[in-house]
């Protein structure tokens, strides 16, 4: 929960910034008061701590670490497939991350990219393909173990949920957009499989997705995904904009977004966890969120040394591409 001292500091700082910018104490007071009332009226309380604990530390009353197969474990089996879910379970994962997408007729399926080109023998946007067309594709066609998994199909969301429940895996739903459609589909899935309330979490880079999910079903455990400098730089550190002005502008936006994630958005959405890119996590960072009742989960942790650090030093959950061997992260 946000500390009283935090609120005083944040809104006092906002007041001073507005005063300096407008030279109007009255205007600054009105704006600060409006934003405070907005936060109080429209923020969602987090789900109960014991429910969040069952999702984020399943079957571990003494505080075990959640190990989540990223995209089902994309190195060990074709990503976002039923085979990946089963392989993750066999290899000791306690959870799987599943990427939500939609076909041309609006059927929810698993696919990380906007197109099927990278992972299948097909081509084109997922949103332009009918489910029957997707089902004819080989989801293992581009995988390093394509011979072993030849003929693996793109699963629907329900097929993946049912498989994950059978394997007793915690599900991390990754939603990239379409907040209204995603919230509606997931709400129906939770109603159909109530066990999900204690065994799954809805996560997204987009705060509007999480806010809509909490608005649609406030009993769902949720998380914001974050990577500092995401707007201005690619995952390899290269700038997204070639112009100096573009780099400066997106850099400023990144600073504001990072501040908002750590001080406003998490509280507004009432999230139970923050999924942070692994390079930005430390003991102090974990403690910062622990004081606010929020779990930290790292991504993507792919070496034995890093996994040992997360399990024995940080003592927090993480996402990994492989349960079997060291592997370069796939973002």
UniProtKB/TrEMBL annotation:
PROSITE patterns: GP_PDE. The chain crosses the membrane at residues 12-38. SUPFAM superfamilies: PLC-like phosphodiesterases. Keywords: Membrane, Transmembrane, Transmembrane helix. The keyword DNA repair does not apply. Residues 65-331 form the GP-PDE domain. CDD domains: GDPD_GDE1. The keyword Cell membrane does not apply. It holds the Pfam family GDPD. Belongs to the glycerophosphoryl diester phosphodiesterase family. This is GP-PDE domain-containing protein. It comes from Pagothenia borchgrevinki.
């Amino acid at each position: 929960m946000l500390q009283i001292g935090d609120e005083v500091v944040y809104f006092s700082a906002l007041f001073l910034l507005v005063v300096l910018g407008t030279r109007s104490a009255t205007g600054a007071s009105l704006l600060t008061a409006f934003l405070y009332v907005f936060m109080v009226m429209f923020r969602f309380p987090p789900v109960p701590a014991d429910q969040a604990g069952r999702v984020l530390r399943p079957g571990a009353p003494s505080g075990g670490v959640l190990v989540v197969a990223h995209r089902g474990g994309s190195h060990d089996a074709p990503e976002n497939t039923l085979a990946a879910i089963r392989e993750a379970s066999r290899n000791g994962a306690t959870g799987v991350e599943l990427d939500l997408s939609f076909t041309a007729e609006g059927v929810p399926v698993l696919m990380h990219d906007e197109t099927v080109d990278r992972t299948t023998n097909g081509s084109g946007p997922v949103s332009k393909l009918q489910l029957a067309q997707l089902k004819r594709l080989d989801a293992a066609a581009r995988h390093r173990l394509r011979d072993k998994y030849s003929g693996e199909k793109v699963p629907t969301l329900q097929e993946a949920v049912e498989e994950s429940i059978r394997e007793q895996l915690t599900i991390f739903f990754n939603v990239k957009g379409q907040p209204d459609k995603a919230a509606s589909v997931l709400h129906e899935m939770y109603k159909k499989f109530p066990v999900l309330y204690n065994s799954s979490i809805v996560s997204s880079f987009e705060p509007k997705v999480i806010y809509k999910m909490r608005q649609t079903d406030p009993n769902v455990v949720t998380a914001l995904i974050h990577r500092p400098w995401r707007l201005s730089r690619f995952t390899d550190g290269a700038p997204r904009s070639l112009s100096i002005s573009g780099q400066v502008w997106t850099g400023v936006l990144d600073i504001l977004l990072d501040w908002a994630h750590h001080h406003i958005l998490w509280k507004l959405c009432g999230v139970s966890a923050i999924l942070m890119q692994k390079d930005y996590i430390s003991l102090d960072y974990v403690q910062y969120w622990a004081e606010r009742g929020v779990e930290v989960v790292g991504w993507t942790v792919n070496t034995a040394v890093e996994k040992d650090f997360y399990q024995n030093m940080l003592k927090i959950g993480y996402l990994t591409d492989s349960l079997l061997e060291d592997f370069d992260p796939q973002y």
